[in-house]
Predict the structure of Nitroreductase domain-containing protein.
Amino acid sequence: MSTLLDDLILLASRAPSAHNTQPWSARIVSETSVEVSVVPSRTLPAGDPSFRDVVLALGAWVESFAIGASELRFDVSVEALPALERLEELPVVGRADPSSPVLRVTLRPREAGTGSPVGTSPFSADDVRQRGVFRGRLAGHPETWDDLVDVDLPPWLSVRRLDDRAMAYLSRLGIAFTASRPSVAKELLSWLRLDPKHPRYRLDGMTDVMLGLPRPLARLAAPATRRRHLRDPLLGVAGVIGGASESLERARSLRPLALSLAESSPDSPTHLVLVANARLAALDDAPRVTAAMDSSIGIAEPDVLDAGRVLQRLWLHAFTRGLAVSPHSELIDSPLAHGLLRKRLSLGRSDVALAVFSVGVPSGEVPRSPRLTDVVS
Ligand SMILES: Cc1cc2nc3c(=O)[nH]c(=O)nc-3n(C[C@H](O)[C@H](O)[C@H](O)COP(=O)(O)O)c2cc1C
């Protein structure tokens, strides 16, 4: 059984995570159970202070584990542990604390006669292994996103469409925000691996290939991600440009969403926003209402964990249709872009935008991202 758990942990490590930080540390604690702790040095204190992206990534990890288990005719039960709602107590750096796991996943053999013989998930372990983010040009596609049966959206989660113009505008605002906040930009640079000579090139972070950067440009920029005397002036310049474009962009006005969506070109990718409703999520569970109010994400962490599972299913839904996803968290990270996004989608008080991504037909090969668990030859 422990080989089985090892295999499932290896599969789950293919889950996506912001900046490819892989913030999880899994430990087999019994014949059938695995506990997962968060690795403090793999969180993003500047870019993700609410731990939204960390918990979404943990959810994607759980979903990947469950897909592998399902293929082997096991169900999983997932227990969110109290430490999941106390992530702000984590240190900013350091290793995972195995005595303070955030979740426990337990395998249960599927009872005879339930589910299909080969598993109940519509996705396969191979889908989990092969899915990847694509940051190059995405072309339009006939997929409507109305039929999400395989994604199995709970009633408190919805997928909203954003128009091309708003997407481009809010993304520019979000990028300007990142550039103009030295702590956020510095953190991003520390996860870039622009040269194969970088000691962590095959382990974590985002490589030049993943970002689709031309090789000469990547080699030119690489030293600035590692050498302080080059990085700090670069951050200074980026800050000035980012700040200036943030104020310039602020003045823009957009046509109504419905009109702009109707005018969307069929050649454009689709832009989607995963929205959670905190009130509906807490409906059957009164303590969750307070938990949602306590959480800086605006929704209780165990619900964000479930949303992370759904996010992985959405990305796999795209993958199994020959499409690729390009995430755009900058629309949520920048308070200004986030506010305008909420307005654009007419979100209510208890609605929380958790993830933004574009989907389309990739114009090139989808690069393979590294993992800590890859065997480096
Ligand atoms: C919650 C979450 C937020 C993310 N935000 C972004 C983003 O804003 N921009 C981006 O380019 N990639 C984003 N990503 C994608 C990760 O960078 C990507 O998953 C990671 O580098 C591993 O690559 P892979 O998904 O191709 O395996 C995000 C992923 C997750 C799970």
